[in-house]
Design a protein that fits this description.
Elements: H1 3-43, H2 52-73, H3 78-100, H4 103-111, E1 116-119, H5 122-125, H6 139-149, E2 160-162, E3 167-170, E4 175-183, H7 186-192, E5 197-204, E6 211-220, H8 232-237, E7 244-252, E8 258-269, E9 273-283, E10 290-294, H9 308-320, H10 325-329, E11 336-338, E12 343-347, E13 350-359, E14 365-366, E15 368-373, E16 379-382, E17 386-387, H11 389-399, E18 406-407, E19 411-415, E20 418-426, E21 432-439, E22 446-449, H12 452-466, E23 476-491, E24 494-501, E25 507-511, E26 526-532, E27 538-546
Parallel strand pairs: 1-16, 25-27
Antiparallel strand pairs: 2-4, 3-4, 4-5, 5-6, 7-8, 8-9, 9-10, 11-13, 12-13, 13-15, 14-17, 15-16, 18-20, 19-20, 20-21, 21-22, 23-24, 23-26, 24-25, 26-27
């Protein structure tokens, strides 16, 4: 073979290798771009430089490109090495920046991320909730009540389920739990995608009988259970590619119109650390219209600007890093932490989340409790020693241990100026049978009754006997009046009497067990009744006496 021929062959061979390498490069790039398109559509990442996930996602893409290029060329070429090196550098960058923004280095910043006002004056600073506003329907009860509603509309239960979220919302006049229907799956979405989700469940938390399956004139098309471009997250993400989104919450405005409220969060500490809500995106699920609001401009009807888990994480940091990071490892001096669980309470139209705070390593007691306004992020710490929620639940259950009732997680109330846990007691079927009030400062003080009023009265009597309050309830009233009408009905197997009295625009309810004279009471009789007054249109009688008789 001549020298010239060998040279021409080498050039041809090198040219073929170059073309093969270029083809492998283009093929690898095409496959990675195709993968990126699929991943983007399925995972919907936020393309934000302060989102650590986006760096790891691109590190994944570069890693896949380097490996594909190696497999096609059978060697670590320059593009493969560069791609894999860049992938490793991105991972290392995320690790380093995460450490620089961690609690280990920034403990004081994490503690001060939420501003908390501290007080020991519970009575005057914590608003009293009237008997008519006591929330007797918790999330589990709401699920039970709501599930029965879907069966009232023929064919609805075969297409939809009820979202188990049951968000607590405060309207102008009521405190409600609301939850939309959701598609049962891809096929059911495909069959109903043009009409959308037709209903949502609305439950008054103060009255378990006040429940409604609200029908919409136009269905909700942009919901979390939908698919493809009607999926709520995808619909929002395509309009807001850079926002870090958290906590999709179903709410209604003061006119009863449904919306989804999505919190927009950003890191405050370092590059990635200390997430905090900076605004919300409000989405009309019927039309798909959406609008972003800053924290200062959020409409008043929106209950949840701050995601509950995020707010509670900040509370934990506030109590945990009181003396810096190393104190959490060694001395643990003055450290406090949240108890296991939290609940919600509505005050002046705002939804608050609350939980007890206990010393680190302590037993079942609290040093106080905190409330966070989920709209404004205003936080209050009430420094009051007492029993934690679990102890209060056990104490309430102990009052009826022979019945085997289970306690719900407590709601915090102000009863006669005393911090009080309100607890419902349920049977094995999950039905509420009794109500109880338990003193935070002394969980042996428990009032139990078949109605909220009866339980509250029994509790007030315990407080009076103990000398904690003087003279009984400031809301307790005794009057004498003539009977305008009296009727009876059986409720949960018990006879209740319903009376209207002269001069009072209220309906009085009297369980038969409170007095033997109820069955013989007639219109025109003069009676004496004792009741706990509030702004409700119906009041439960605590004591009854027909003055026409002396039995």
């Amino acid at each position: 073979m001549s020298k010239k021929y060998r040279t021409d062959f080498a050039w041809a061979f090198e040219g073929q290798k170059a073309r093969g390498a270029k083809k492998s490069l283009i093929t690898s790039l095409f496959l990675v771009l195709l993968l990126a398109f699929v991943v983007d559509y399925l995972t919907l990442p936020a393309y934000n430089l302060r989102n650590s996930g986006i760096y790891l996602l691109f590190a994944f893409y570069f890693g896949v490109f380097g490996i594909l290029n190696f497999l096609m060329t059978q060697k670590f070429s320059g593009p493969s090495r560069a791609s894999l090196t860049l992938s490793g550098l991105l991972v290392a960058f995320v690790v380093v920046m995460s450490i620089l923004g961690s609690e280990f280095i920034n403990a004081s910043k994490y503690r001060n991320q939420i501003v908390i006002s501290e007080t020991t004056d519970f009575s005057s600073s914590f608003d009293k909730i009237s008997l008519a506003k006591v929330p007797v329907v918790d999330r589990d009860t709401a699920m039970q009540i709501g599930d029965k509603q879907i069966g009232k509309v023929q064919g609805l239960g075969s297409q939809f389920n009820i979202d188990p979220a049951y968000t607590l919302v405060s309207t102008q006049d009521e405190i409600l739990r609301v939850s939309p229907l959701e598609y049962q799956g891809l096929i059911k979405w495909f069959q109903n995608r043009d009409s959308g989700v037709p209903n949502f469940v609305r439950i008054n938390v103060n009255d378990a009988s006040d429940v409604d399956l609200v029908s919409l004139e136009q269905g909700m098309k942009y919901v979390p259970s939908a698919y493809f471009d009607q999926d709520l997250l995808r619909h929002v993400r395509f309009a807001y590619r850079t926002e870090i989104l958290q906590d999709f919450s179903f709410e209604i405005d003061d006119e009863g119109n449904p919306y989804y409220v999505i919190s927009v969060v950003e890191p405050e500490i370092g590059l990635f650390g200390g997430l905090d809500a900076v605004g919300v995106i409000v989405v009309d699920p019927i039309t798909g219209d959406m609008e972003k609001y800053s924290v200062e401009d959020v409409p008043d009807w929106v209950d949840r600007v701050q995601p509950t888990e995020l707010a509670w994480y900040q509370i934990d940091n506030w109590g945990y890093y009181i003396r810096g990071f190393w104190n959490t490892v060694f001395g643990q001096k003055d450290m406090i932490q949240t108890t296991d669980g939290y609940n919600y309470v509505s005050i002046e139209g705002y939804t608050y989340v609350f939980s007890g705070l206990t010393s680190v390593g302590a037993d079942q007691s609290i040093v106080g409790f905190t409330l966070i306004n989920l709209h404004t992020k205003e936080a209050m710490f009430y420094r009051i020693g007492g029993a934690d929620e679990t102890s209060a639940m056990s104490s309430a259950q102990g009052q009826v241990q022979d019945l085997g009732y289970r306690a719900t997680f407590p709601v915090l109330l102000n009863v006669e100026g005393q911090p009080t846990y309100f607890i419902s007691l349920k049977d094995q079927e999950g039905l509420v049978k009794l109500y109880s009030f338990v003193a935070v400062t002394d969980y042996s003080l428990v009032g139990v009754g078949q109605t909220v009023a009866a339980a509250q009265i029994a509790y007030i009597e315990k407080l009076t006997e103990k000398g904690i309050i003087d003279g009984g309830s400031s809301q307790m009233k005794t009057i004498e009046a003539k009977v305008l009408s009296i009727d009876t009905a059986i409720v949960d197997g018990n006879s209740n009497y319903y009376l209207r009295l002269e001069g009072l625009d209220k309906l009085f309810i009297a369980p038969i067990r409170i007095d033997a004279e109820l069955p013989i009471t007639a219109i025109g009789d003069l009676v004496r009744v004792t009741y706990l007054d509030n702004d409700s249109a119906t009041l439960v009688i605590n004591a009854f006496d027909n003055l026409q008789y002396d039995y």
